[in-house]
Amino acid sequence: QVQLVESGGGSVQAGGSLRLSCSVSGSSFDAVGWYRQAPGSQREFVALWYDDRDPKYSESAQGRFTISRDNARNMVFLQMNSLKPEDTGVYYCNLPSNAARRGYWGQGTQVTVSS
Fold first, then answer.
1. For residues 78 and 84, what is the distance between their CA atoms, to the nearest angstrom?
2. For the chain, which terminal residue's Cβ has fewer other Cβ atoms within 10 angstroms, N or C?
């Protein structure tokens, strides 16, 4: 059974940092993404880690966030620096679908940035 479990969310002041973690079990993977959803808004792309190419970031995340993988623990991290109030939302980890399986989402972790 494939499971994604996020952790690391919390409340910080603007300018602060958080590191989100996504633990992936039940499937190998060559890409994992992070998305976020603010209240009243649609879920939006934040960052995508690839096994065989450079990561991809949203324009908002570029230069402030870093996505990485810990191979030994099957975890993907999102290091978020210089946080802004507009970064507030629920952050979700995503395992994209491929030819062998469907995609999966984690349950989300709340990030709140106060001004």
1. 15
2. N
Query: For the chain, how many residues are written?
Result: 115
Token digits of residue 88 = 């507030």
- Over residues 24-54, the pLDDT tens digits come to 999 989 999 999 999 999 999 999 999 999 9
Yes or no: say if 91 and 108 are a contact pair by the CB < 8 Å rule: yes
Angle at 96 between CA 92 and CA 97, to 5 degrees: 140
51-94 pLDDT per residue, tens: 999 999 999 999 999 999 998 889 999 999 999 999 999 999 99
User: Is residue 113 within 8 Å of residue 10, measured between CB atoms?
Assistant: no
Quote the CA–CA distance of 85 and 56 in Å, as a whole number.
Answer: 22
Specify which residues 113 forms β-bridges with: 12
